[in-house]
Design goal:
Blueprint (H helix, E strand, L loop, with lengths): L1 H17 L5 H11 L3 H26 L1
Length: 64
Amino acid sequence: MFLLIFLKLTALKRKFQADCYPDVRTKNELAKNLGLPAGVIGEWFKNKRQKAREESSRNSRINN
């Protein structure tokens, strides 16, 4: 079970690095390949973008 979750997260993270704003077709393909609802994929990308913005903001405050 843990390995399956790890593999799904790894696939999502790779896609995010390539494109943090995937189109609907890409999200649907990911959903099908990973066995997850498309809405879950969309929410994951939205949350990941938010975390990336927060981390970027935090890092810029530290560096200033």
